[in-house]
Hints:
single chain, 3-stranded mixed beta sheet
Amino acid sequence: MIDGSSGMPIALLGLGLGAWLLLTLYLAPRLHSLGGLLYILLSARYITTFFHDYTTKAVFAGQSINSFLTLGLTALCLLITWRDLLRYKVFLPVFAMILALLMSGFWNMELTGTVNALIRQLLFLSLMILVAKAVDAEANDGSTSRAMLAAFVVPILYQLMSIVLRLGKASESDGSVSFMGGYVHEGVFSTLLLTALVIAALAAGLSWRRRSIYVAVIFAALVFANYRTAVLSGVPILLAHFIFGSATVARARLGNYVRSGAFLLALIIGFTVAGLFSQRMADLGTLLTSGGGLIRPPMELTPDDRSLLSGRILIWNDYFFTTLRSDISHLVFGFGPDSWQRAFALYAHNVYISYIYELGFVGALIFAYMQLHFIVLAVLARPDKRWHLLGAHISYGLLCLGTMPTFTIEGVILYAVICGYTVYYYLYQRVPAKRVMSGSRLAPLRHGFAQP
């Protein structure tokens, strides 16, 4: 049955939950580590969201089970990582982002939105540190990455059920079908899969062949989820893994085979993306050749302009010109975190445009600076992971251009994982110690851009 709904029958949800319990029992002897904790944290978020018909309803004080779970995850991550929050200069741009949220919220007296945005930002910061500490604590055997990847077994199993039983969701725009196993939204489920793709590509201690299998399976799942922005965002990670990741294998005298396979795969990916995004690519061509002519008030857009990029041009202009027509204080500080929910029927489908409205030009610039900061860390990271990290950051940037990963917990987790690996591989190059995040030997604010 293919329709406009996304939920799965409760019997199938129960089957998946049983599979997760069996998997957890099997992994139990190996879960006594930070990697095991990450498996539990990720699983808790993802599994409960499959039950969104029940877990998103208000149960106490207007809050849902998912809301309380998010609070619990944030509190637990902060409890574990609080000693490291001010230990490294690499985290300072995140605090600047938190300050921008608070200034915009207080200026606009936007209490609820500020609290929600602050929780997401604190979850990002603490989970990023937890990922870095977990990878640092392993014995370079890939145990942390394997534990985190195990959290995606059941989500992919749910998706497989939906494919076999044809329990897909028909797209509202073009009638195509998304198979996401009953998750709350195809875009959010695709963000979940992008997280798995990043972990598989960046895992330390796993062979290139094994990582290649993981990457191929996850990308196939991403295609079946059929959220085009996310599929396009996954391509830089895929190419970084197969083209640059093959260099290590090439040094092992398998170069010709690896290069041939990588080239063939690149061709397949190119043709697949071209087929999936033929209309989107045509829209991008129109956008690039317009020379800024599409940046104008919504009322001045033609019907063809309004349909470009699935209506995103109309949405972006609506947000942008609403901000421009406001007073100077709103241009600087915005209208407050998450304030778009009161003013617009649809979210902005672009983080930068949304932040210009919510946090003003100051907040949007701070967010862009924070992203640039972590990209620079990626450039300075361990050489064998440098291109993989850059691919992951490019993927996240593409996602920010077409949707709103900063507004969903899955998007927060994705960026925390990317930046967690980035911080670890950066410090790996800078700290002459077996454990690069060993707190007992590091002074506050010791490691950052300026210090080798």
